[in-house]
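Two proteins follow. First one:
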Amino acid sequence: MTSTRFDIIVIGAGIAGLTSALALRETGCSVAVLDRGEPGAEASWAGGGILCPLYAWRYPPAVLAVAVAGMRRYPALLASLDSGIDPERMVTGMRILDPIGADETRDSITATLSGVGIRHEWQPGTAGESLWLPEVANVRNPRLLDALLETARAQGVALFPQRAAQGVEIHSGRVDAVRTATGTLRAERVVVAAGAWSEAFIPGLRAGSLFPVRGQMLRVEPRAANGLDHIRMKDNVYLIPRVDGSVVVGSTVEHAGFDKTVDDDAQVGLHDAACRLWPALAEAAVTHRWAGLRPGSVDEHPVLGEHPEIDGLWVNTGGFRNGLAMAPATADLLAALMTGQPTALDPAPYRVERLLAS
């Protein structure tokens, strides 16, 4: 068994892990990233890439704050990438056809969106008012992950694909190393950013504090958009037009443990809802179907900060449906906390201790 030392080890090479690794590398630290499979191939790859919370006014204020901060940071993040891969960021806007739910009013929604600086317009329609968010963008998230991986390599981050962390070694109340099947990697600080698999590396959590949430999606062939030039949403189903004219349809929210099975009934339901939203899709072929496991938390907030009982054990996970939108902001917040710098966001709502067993 070999042993290698780094300043910081990040467990997980999804959007949270890679953006965290790059932000920490900028501070001059040596950084290694481990992943149980291929980097970027789990929830970050499987999502739709919308850079705005869906039905944003329904989230707790602290969740909305970090998601909006992440949205604002995306142009700078993309400009900083050291890669020839285009993540295909498109500012398409998003139209929500059923914005007002139970216990909501037009005024309450307007107040929430105005309070966080999300531009919006109420527009009349034959089926009632819709809500138009003109600044909403999306990225082709698999391409974004590939660009982040190229950037990490170019900036000297050590990447270890197909090298699952088996556990974090803790001695005298502080982190010492991460064990893997092919050797031990040593570091005085470890960041757990393992998405739906994070709970196993965070001692002392209450049972059920972090959990996987399955989301199924499908993609309709190029040329399917047929005039669809914006994100369109109703009944929690959304359509995302891509640069090549294809349309991504998502997504389900299922509590099925770590099962990533693609279910025919769920896929039919998604496709039927998509065709109601944009009837031209009925004539187009479905080319891809997939499922991913998003990292959920019991109070819907991300989990970010140092473990209160273990020095050097840090966490950045729990983004659920907004992990991609949040990523630049959570990475910046993590790096600031780890280096003792002032933070743009109040870290208190995201602290690990709120989920620890008493």
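Second one, unrelated to the first:
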Amino acid sequence: MDAFASIISNNQNKVIKVLTSVTIILSLPTLIASFYGMNLTLPMQSSNLCFVVIGALSAAVMLMAALFFKKMNWL
């Protein structure tokens, strides 16, 4: 019975690692977009390409975080 509980605990730890890494990866674009949703003077505020640059920055940060978690064997 103890061996079975240990196996279930190890499987649960793996699932929690994956869910945690996915949550972190998905929260990074929200963090970046929230900075640009404030009523402050921000860099590139008047630029026409601001949305594209912020989207590319968010995608790059997500990709770097995903690669980091993949390297750590969390994904």
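SUMMARY FIELD: The radius of gyration is 18 Å. The chain has one domain: 2-71.
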